[in-house]
């Protein structure tokens, strides 16, 4: 260090800057903390709004090997129901389950998730009218779940199932067992089967099992549910 540099380092201005550095860091940290709290509160507000109870909620279980979500049939049904629900808000819960070819274990996992969610909604949002739905394996999931939902039957306005496993072929796929919807829920259930669908009937037309949107049955089910809201 040159004599001039050494002299500058000892100067009052330089010493003042050194003293200011930690103080500035503290001030900045305090400012960030002060700013962060209101931002956190602002972020929390939409979350609280999102958690508000909807007028209607659809709990839907997708079909086998569809990606996570409500699936194609489920989305068409929900879109149609929303268009018929007037100014009522419609929430959606996609049943969280594997939807794999391991039908017995997969559908039981789905039934458990659907049951837990419906019971939770009935407790936390007692004024929300729930609609249960499922397609293919997902229809079986809803069937099974209803048998453990006797205590919340009054919270469920309607049930809509598409391609519900009911055939001998479906029984073989399911390991010899077929799901049945609870008698408590049958009066509020629409159970739709495209003619010759080999999953819900003894037909042999595989294309029929993927024709629920094209045949207008998702709209038919939505009208059934909307009339019961």
Automatic annotation (TrEMBL):
InterPro entries with a match to the protein in the record: AB_hydrolase_fold (IPR029058), Cutinase/axe (IPR000675)
Residue spans crossing the bilayer: none
Pfam families according to UniProt: Cutinase (PF01083)
Gene Ontology molecular-function annotations: carboxylic ester hydrolase activity
Alphabetical keyword list: Disulfide bond, Hydrolase, Serine esterase
PANTHER family to which the protein is assigned, alphabetical: CUTINASE 4, CUTINASE RV1984C-RELATED-RELATED
Family: Belongs to the cutinase family.
Protein name in UniProt: Putative cutinase
């Amino acid at each position: 260090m040159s004599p001039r540099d050494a002299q500058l380092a000892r100067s009052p201005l330089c010493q003042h800057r050194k003293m200011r550095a930690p103080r500035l860091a503290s001030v900045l940290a305090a400012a960030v903390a002060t700013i962060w709290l209101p931002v956190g509160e602002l972020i929390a507000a939409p979350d609280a709004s999102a958690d508000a109870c909807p007028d209607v909620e659809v709990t839907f279980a997708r079909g086998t090997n569809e990606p996570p979500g409500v699936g194609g049939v489920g989305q068409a049904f929900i879109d149609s129901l929303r268009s018929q629900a007037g100014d009522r808000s419609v929430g959606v819960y996609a049943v969280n389950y594997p939807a794999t070819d391991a039908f017995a274990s997969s559908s039981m996992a789905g039934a458990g998730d659907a049951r837990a969610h419906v019971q939770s909604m009935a407790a936390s949002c007692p004024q929300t009218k729930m609609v249960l739905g499922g397609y293919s394996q997902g229809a079986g999931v809803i069937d099974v779940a209803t048998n453990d939902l006797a205590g919340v039957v009054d919270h469920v306005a309607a049930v809509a199932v598409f391609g519900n496993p009911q055939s001998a072929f479906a029984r073989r796929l399911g390991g010899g067992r077929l799901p049945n919807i609870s008698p408590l829920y049958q009066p509020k259930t629409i159970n739709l089967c495209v003619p010759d669908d080999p999953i819900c009937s003894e037909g042999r037309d595989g294309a029929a099992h993927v024709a629920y949107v094209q045949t207008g049955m998702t709209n038919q089910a939505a009208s059934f549910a909307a009339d019961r809201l």
